[in-house]
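EI: anyone free to look at a 206-residue chain?
SC: sure, send it
EI:
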Amino acid sequence: MLIIGIAGGSGSGKTTVVKAITQQLKDRVVVIPQDSYYKDLSHCTEQQKKEHNFDHPDSIDFKLLCQHLKELKEGKPIEQPVYSYITCSRSKDETVTVTPADVIIVEGILIFTCAELRKQLDIKIFVDADDDDRLMRVMSRDIIERGKTVEWVIDRYSKTVKPMFLQFIEPSKRYADIIIPQGGHNKVAIDVISATIEKSLANCKK
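SC: here you go
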């Protein structure tokens, strides 16, 4: 089994890279999104939820994420949480059953900020992209998928997303084994990574 971490700022193209790799590896890979492991805020007031910083490492339940990776590596299935950005809470009635695969991809903006998680990753990839490009993708995603207003997105980007990127995410790039410039549009880099994964899997079987 190969565990791959794919990090990068919001809107950098991580999802595009993950999709490209999974298309090549098909049923040999499963994806674990960091977003599923946000801490439950159902006990908070609506105002507290609005002010919550989702781009700070403390917002992630890294303990559970690391435990789930450990179980997958041991060949055990896990029950991945289902998190809602609308209610800022985990579903109490629903989980996603994830079974072990040859390749486990862990994807998220903050995954390289956790030392314990980094130790579990065999390959660490950082997806880099221009700040303006990332802002446009963040605006599109938050407005269309999360029902936010343009004003809310710009305010959050300037007060939270950008400062947290500079404080936590950008510095975590130094832990990466591979850095992909131009985000998810770098086909050459994605092809090289896919070939590297195939080679690593072949070596694991020897």
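EI: The radius of gyration is 17 Å.
SC: 👍
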